[in-house]
Amino acid sequence: MTASHESLVAIAREHSAAEGVGDLETVLGTLEDDPVYELQPVGLEFRGMDAVRAYYDYFFSTFSTFVAGATLRGESVAADGVVEEYTIWTKAGPGNALERHEVVGILTFGDDRLSGERVYGSERLLRLMFGPVYDISTPIAVGEPT
Q1: Among 85, 105, 115, 118, which Cα is nearest to 11's?
Q2: CA dihedral 14, 19, 21, 22 (to 10 degrees)
Q3: Where are the domains of the chain?
Q4: Cα–Cα nearest to 81, from 143, 142, 16
């Protein structure tokens, strides 16, 4: 069974809201069984529920402690996902200096839930946000240009 576009948009928004309040089980429940997360523009990915759970465990327990604030700057709905643009302020630098990061997340649609996410941000932010999962991510396999 394939979910309607409207249902998938609602699932994407539920996913984002659950991320915002640290609700791990709801976040994981919005994902299909073999999600894929791409880290861009560094060209890395990780996949599978075990890796995603490890990411969110780190995200909620560690990365969230660095976050001083976040603002949703915009949201766009496309045929294949929901695009969210955020500004995130962290206190993770020397002397807990406030750092501003721009990030774009694309929550990608699967058949019934989200198939994963593509996250575009600076390497600094991606390393902060994904922690040890960044280090086990693998290069995205792409073919030659046509």
Answers
A1: 115
A2: 130
A3: 5-139
A4: 16
CB-CB neighbours of 59 under 10 Å: 19
For tokens 């946000």, the residue is 129
Contacts of 139 (CB under 8 A, 6+ apart): 43, 44, 45
Span 7-34, pLDDT tens digits:
999 999 999 999 999 999 999 999 999 9
Q: Are 105 and 119 in contact (CB under 8 A)?
A: yes
Answer CATH for 5-139 from 3.40.50.1820, 3.40.605.10, 3.40.50.720, 3.10.450.50: 3.10.450.50
pLDDT tens per residue, range 119-139: 999 999 999 999 999 999 999
Using DSSP's 3-state secondary structure scheme, residue 1 falls into coil
Alpha-carbon Rg of the chain, whole angstroms?
15
What is residue 61's DSSP assignment?
A: I
